[in-house]
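Subject: for your reference before the review

Hello V.,

The reviewers asked for a structural picture of the protein, and I figured it would be easier to keep everything in one thread rather than splitting it across files. Below is the amino acid sequence we used in the manuscript, unchanged from the supplementary table.
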Amino acid sequence: MNSIANKLAKWLMPVATKFSNQRHLSAIRDGFITIIPLVIVVSFFILINSVILDPEEGFLKNVIDLSKFQEIGDLVNNGTLGILSILIAFTIAYKLALSYEEDGVIPGVMAVAVLITMMPNVVEITPEGSDEAVQVTGVLSQEQTSANGLLFAIIASLLGTEIFLRLKKKKKLQITMPDTVPPEVSKSFSALIPSFLTLLLFACLSFLSNLIFGFGLPEMVTKAIQAPLDFAIQSQFGITVIMFVQNLLWSVGIHGTFVLGPIKDPSLLASIQENIDALQAGTEIPNIVTKPFIDSFAMLGGGGFTIGLVIAIFIASRRSDYREVTKFALIPSLFNINEPIMFGLPVILNPTLAIPLILVPIINLNIAYIATSLGLISKTVAYIPWTTPPVVSAFLSTAGDWRSAVLAVLLIGISVIIYLPFVMATNRMTDLNNQ
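And here is what came back from the structure prediction:
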């Protein structure tokens, strides 16, 4: 079994490393990491709005009416999640430019300009008290600027930055200023012609798309890429496959969450955004699978649901090395940081523990998915930090649903039961080695 694990690692490691270090995927990953604090902050405001300030469902509904203060959270939402695609366009372009050892500010600004250039600026609305829709020009819809437009923002920022930087390197397109001109002014003028050509190109593409197809490039991307990707991730089978691959990578020492993040995170962020919007609008919550759903029900203790392994070792392991490492890893595991136990036991390249490492998250994910689809627990409506302790994360991400917390406890129990036989198997292997 060890030889099989080593062969698998030898085959997967170069592929995953190359995938993880790929310039554009790294820019996407780092761009998302940059804006995570904003997403977490607004989630706390949304939690306060729904759990405390809501006049119908809040904890203080029968004590005092504080609903007017919900506007504070709404304003924070508009300034964060409401413009998430614009923010991500800047951060991805910035990180991509840095990877080319270029200044990131001008490419970041250019990426935002490219994105807005291709967005429709006409919104159709139905005024209150009227049955006829009217068109309002000169405005941007949050349908495009929020998390719903993330995929298009990613594509626009990557393409816009690549084209802009390539044009900028051509000396014939650079305007050279005298040495007496401040450096920042010189940088701006050297980017003038490349900026003009970049924006002209994308403006023409957007114009032709509307002229030929009757709709813009954002809608084209949504129909061709976003919708199928969202469908795959929201389906029980699709997210199970993703979880299998993610933990298979973990089992051979590759950070599966890190590697697959650029592929799945845009859709997972968009799905939690849709849930948040529905919660605020008082409509049905649409999505089961979101990032906090996975964090709260499939990755307790970290990748592989290793909180179950920690408990199982304390219960059944006779190996002194396992128990010592687990004592050290206990506190990090309570905050879903599992590197100490993954590399300390180790779990990686350990054929005995690799089996439950892959199976436990898949089993628990599917239990939580079915429970949510049956209405036994609420859907996730808040983006919470991934380091939020187990059980607490389930409670907070579902806006205070105690049933979700109970399910998290049950899933931890299931994980312990599954891990126990494999932990006991490591005892027997040690006994055999000592004979």
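For the response letter, the relevant points are probably these. The chain has 19 helices and two strands. Residues 1-22+235-435 form one domain.

Happy to draft the paragraph if you're swamped.

O.
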